[in-house]
Amino acid sequence: MEDFPKTLAEFEARFSTEQACRDYLIALRWPEGFCCPKCRGTAFWKSQRGLLVCSACQFQASPTAGTIFQDTRKPLMTWFRAMWYVTAMKTGASALGVQRVLGLGSYETAWTWLHKLRRAMVRPGRDRLTGRVEVDETYWGASETGGVSGRKIEKKVLIAVAAQEDGRGIGRIRLGRVNNAGPSALGAFIQATIEPGSTVHTDGWHGYRHLPRKGYVHEVSVLAEHKEPASELLPRVHRVVALLKTCLQGTHQGAVSHTHLDYYLDEFTFRFNRRKSGSRGKLFYRLAQQAMQVEPVPYKKIVHPNGFH
Length: 309
Prior knowledge:
The chain has helices spanning about 10-15, 20-30, 75-90, 95-100, 105-120, 185-195, 230-235, 235-250, 260-275, 280-290, 300-305; strands spanning about 45, 50-55, 60, 130-140, 155-165, 170-180, 200, 215-220. By secondary structure, it is of the alpha/beta class. The chain has 2 domains: about 10-30 and about 65-120 and about 285-300; about 130-255, 2-Layer Sandwich (Nucleotidyltransferase, domain 5). The strands form 2 sheets. It has a 5-stranded mixed β-sheet, sandwiched between helices. The relative contact order is 0.14.
């Protein structure tokens, strides 16, 4: 059963103590009731430190161990306010905004928290897109120089975009950075995000020609053969790209490095796919729920995701 506050007033009343926040995380971690990680026992008692002590084997289980909240020195109440604020901002939250709203002592803390929460915005094992799906690519980064043309990249990052059709509108989306626009990279993105048997609608780029061999129905709109601009032949992906760049350039003022771009894409996808939700509280619930499924990430790993320095 989904359990969440529906308004800011309900949120503030419900999570006014550390124990209330901890109890909420316990319910999210063990929705069917406590189960000891060591002996699978179900009876427990709570220690003064907020641990769940198994009555059978005395194992001490922490509701925050192995999650993004592990080893935090800040109150859970502050974390909960951060999650509410992040999910309440329709166009995304900036680290400066989080720092100001929560009264955090440093920008670095706010930035780190945001990146931890962005990692929780991708649900493990999420479903792939189905039906009829538009796919295209876009770029993010500095202008290319030295005669680089077409889909070649040196300074920019190539982002693949998949937008599921929903009548004349847009259903769910998926975004992902790809190394190049070749068949291997684009094929890997499509196989990871779209269910085989679906119809994939693309332009005539050769990087998509192998799709029928991968089990997809491939619909092609060769731009040179149509009077309509690309934005009309593939309207959904172009709409998504426009909104994405508005977000990156507006909320984050373009200050999104290539190193951390993947997590900004995850945040945009999380918000877009839940844009029709009638309750901010439900978004808070989803983020808190997924935060309990994401392993802790140290600050150094966030700063240097490809290796410690």
